[in-house]
Each structure stands twice: as structure tokens, then as C-alpha cells.
Amino acid sequence: MPQNTREIKRRIRSVQNTSQITKAMEMVAAAKLRRVQDAVQQSKPYLAKLQDMLANVSASARHVKHPLLASRPVKRTGYLVITADRGLAGPYNAQVVRAAMQEFGKKDKSAFTIFAVGKRGRDFFKRREFPIGAEVVDLDDSPTHQSIRYLAEEMVQSYEREEFDELYFIYNEFINAVSQRAVVKKVLPLDSLTGEHTGPRRQYEFEPDEEAVMAALLPRYAETLVYQAVLDAKASEHAARMTAMGNATENAKDIIADYTLSLNRARQAAITTQIAEIVGGANALS
């Protein structure tokens, strides 16, 4: 701890400036989190209705064969890995990368391909020369369906071309503002759709036919799952950044308190020294 009062004052001002920045970043992250949470809540009814309808349609058209519904022997796996474009979000990026590395295990690089969302994950995998099939970076803080549509279409088409045989999402699932967890979810094939419907089964009339309807709905559903995962990950990112900046602000307050105490001690020591010098001079004169 410095003893010079000028140096202590300089450090206090520096920490105060940093504290103002982290406080502002915390408030900005909180505002962004609220917007993304609204988008998540608005998209959930659409996803639930689409899922319910697909379960009904799949049950009514069991004879229809579609690549997204077909299970096949797994020779190659696809992974959608969602990270942030920036840091300053606590363990947010590290959690996802750690979960991805555990999932890859000791697999040969030819046995999987990565679809990367976010610069942090993309750069990490590129440095290790992992295969990246497609990437999306510089997403808005409140992503739109259009901003991830290219990536979603690329993954769906790659699966239909049998470039990989199953698809997993790896991202931070939003639990609440202070808790996010890295999850690994299997998404393709959509072979579980027929078993998800629990209510009364509806009968549909297909126009022009079952194949055309399923060919239109299933890719749309897969794209919606991607969008929902990206929204969930963005909410987790903003929450993690808000928490990290809040902790940084509190830590700055503790540091300022320590420096203030040191400043007071240094002042007291200087005053004591001056008094001792005055008393010593007076004694010498007498």
C-alpha cells in the first residue's frame, strides 16, 4: 500500500472512475436483459403452438418421410456453440467452451463440425483448428430471426444433405438474473415430435399434400429452435455481464474504502511528525 498521500489520492480517483464505468455497464446490461427477456416471452407461445401442431401433423401423417425426422447411424455430429462477441461477462464464455470441449472429448476432428455464434467461441476453435461449418458474429444485443436465419438454414440443409447425422446445441441456459448454466441439447433429428403431443389429437386436411406441408413446417420449426436458443443465450450473456459489473462496482467500493483508510493514516502520520518537529524545535529553543 503506498504511503505517499498524492499517490493514494491518484489511485482513489482512478478506482472511482472505473467504478463509474462498471456501474454504467451494469445498468446498460440490465436494460438489454429486460428487452431480450421480453423477446423470449413473446416467442415462447409461437414455439409451443408450432410444436403442438407439428406433433399433431406428424401423428396424422406417419407415412411421410422427411430427412429431419429420420434417425440414421451417427458417423458425424454437428454442434451449434453459442458464445458472446465480447468479454467482461464473468464465466459466461468459459462455461460454454468448457462444456463444448468436454462434449468433443477425444473425438477425431473429422467426426464433428462446429457452427459458431459469437467471436469468443469462434476464435477459440479456430486457434485449435477445429472444423467450423458456418459462423455468425456481431449479433445485435436483441437478435432478430432474420439475423440468424442464414445459420439456421445452413445447419438444416447440411443435415438434409447428410453432412452430419445429429445436431446438438451448446449454450448457456438462462435460469434467472444471477444464475446461468451451460447445457448440451440434442435437437436433430426431430424424431421425438410424434411422442410430444399429450392432448386430444386433431385431424388435418392437407393442401396440397402431407409431404409439402411437412417440408414447409419442419425446417421452420428447426429454425425457430435455433432462434430460441440464441435468445436464451443472449439473455444469459446480459445477465452474466450485469452480475459481473455489479460485483466489480462493489469491489471498487471496497478498494476505495481501503485506500481512504490508508490516506487517513498517512495524513495522521504526517500530522504527528509535524507536531513532534514543532515540540522538538520549541524544546531546543528553551
TrEMBL record:
<keyword id="KW-0066">ATP synthesis</keyword>
<keyword id="KW-0406">Ion transport</keyword>
<protein>
    <recommendedName>
        <fullName>ATP synthase gamma chain</fullName>
    </recommendedName>
</protein>
<keyword id="KW-0139">CF(1)</keyword>
<dbReference type="InterPro" id="IPR035968">
    <property type="entry name" value="ATP_synth_F1_ATPase_gsu"/>
</dbReference>
<dbReference type="Pfam" id="PF00231">
    <property type="entry name" value="ATP-synt"/>
</dbReference>
<dbReference type="InterPro" id="IPR000131">
    <property type="entry name" value="ATP_synth_F1_gsu"/>
</dbReference>
<keyword id="KW-0813">Transport</keyword>
<comment type="subunit">
    <text>F-type ATPases have 2 components, CF(1) - the catalytic core - and CF(0) - the membrane proton channel. CF(1) has five subunits: alpha(3), beta(3), gamma(1), delta(1), epsilon(1). CF(0) has three main subunits: a, b and c.</text>
</comment>
<keyword id="KW-0375">Hydrogen ion transport</keyword>
<keyword id="KW-1003">Cell membrane</keyword>
<comment type="function">
    <text>Produces ATP from ADP in the presence of a proton gradient across the membrane. The gamma chain is believed to be important in regulating ATPase activity and the flow of protons through the CF(0) complex.</text>
</comment>
<comment type="similarity">
    <text>Belongs to the ATPase gamma chain family.</text>
</comment>
<keyword id="KW-0472">Membrane</keyword>
